[in-house]
Design goal:
The chain is an all-alpha fold. It has a single domain, classed as Ferritin, CATH 1.20.1260. The chain has seven helices and no strands. Helix 4 runs antiparallel to helix 5. The protein is elongated, with a radius of gyration of 17 Å. The N and C termini lie far apart (about 40 Å).
Length: about 220
């Protein structure tokens, strides 16, 4: 039976709640909460924002795309990234922080100087790309654009997660970030396989490659590390 966007969103909310519950009861806690400017807090705040766009794009694919390979990816991303949002939000609140209290500039925790606007983080789709995804008429066009945008989105997320896995203080954050990087690398390779199998273009109408995740990063992900 087809799953509507509303039903999928409700399931995502359940996963987000479960993520928070798991983090609360079994999440590994540091004895001392990291500071507001730490890698730990900055990564969680920025990755929540990053994940939220992935969830929004996945909902659009579920509503307007096919139920084939791209649709399977959209549902997996929707469920698991909603779950991770719950984990990260619960951990932030346990340390006394909130996503609503995040700095205006993102990526400063990665040594990016003055940082950047949250919507300009690596891999984030532009407003024009999101409009193109929402307004595509054919399911195949939605699938192609979704895969292209999500591939760049994952590459940006991988770079953030790998940095946090190496530089965060809290072992729970390091483990979470390392797992995200591993999973998203695998998903990038699988997305490429689905795109090729379904005969979808790698540069669909409406897609602009993100220079922040250029060829060196693309090749790094393609090689699996």
């Amino acid at each position: 039976m087809p799953v509507s966007g509303l039903q999928t969103l409700a399931l995502a909310a359940v996963f987000a709640f479960l993520g928070g519950a798991v983090a609360y009861f079994v999440g590994e806690r540091a004895d001392r909460a990291p500071g507001a400017a730490s890698v730990d807090v900055g990564f969680l705040q920025d990755m929540i924002h990053h994940h939220q766009q992935a969830v929004a794009m996945s909902l659009t694919q579920v509503d307007n795309g096919s139920t084939g390979g791209a649709g399977i990816f959209a549902r997996e991303i929707l469920y698991f990234q909603s779950y991770e949002i719950g984990l990260m939000d619960r951990q932030l609140r346990d340390w006394g922080f909130s996503i609503d209290q995040r700095p205006e500039q993102a990526m400063t925790w990665m040594g990016m100087g003055m940082g950047m606007e949250p919507d300009a983080m690596p891999g984030m789709a532009s407003p024009e790309e999101l409009d193109a995804l929402r307004n595509s008429d054919e399911a195949a066009d939605v699938d192609a654009l979704f895969l292209a945008l999500m591939r760049d989105h994952h590459l940006g997320g991988i770079a953030m997660a790998e940095y946090a896995a190496q530089n965060a203080e809290d072992p729970w954050v390091r483990d979470l970030a390392a797992r995200m990087a591993r999973n998203q690398k695998s998903e990038v390779a699988e997305m490429d396989q689905v795109r090729d199998r379904d005969g979808l273009p790698s540069d669909p109408t409406g897609y602009v490659p993100d220079p922040a995740v250029g060829e060196p990063m693309r090749e790094h992900a393609d090689d699996g590390g």
